[in-house]
Amino acid sequence: MSASAAAHAVLAEACAPFVTEGQPAEVTRYQVWSLIHGYSSLALANKYASAGFSQKNCRRFCRCSMNSN
Q: Angle of helix 55-66 relative to helix 25-44, nearest 10 degrees?
């Protein structure tokens, strides 16, 4: 299994409990991926500093979000 396929499998498993009936599962996966990607990108660019968040805490949040199995 490629790294991309493995990552997608983790995402699909993590999102499964939140899929809304009648809505394709991909919609929930795209929403979660977009949220985590956005927070991660902002944290890595240190954009939270002006709001009082440390880069260390933002990186910890991103790691926890992606490893919350």
A: 160
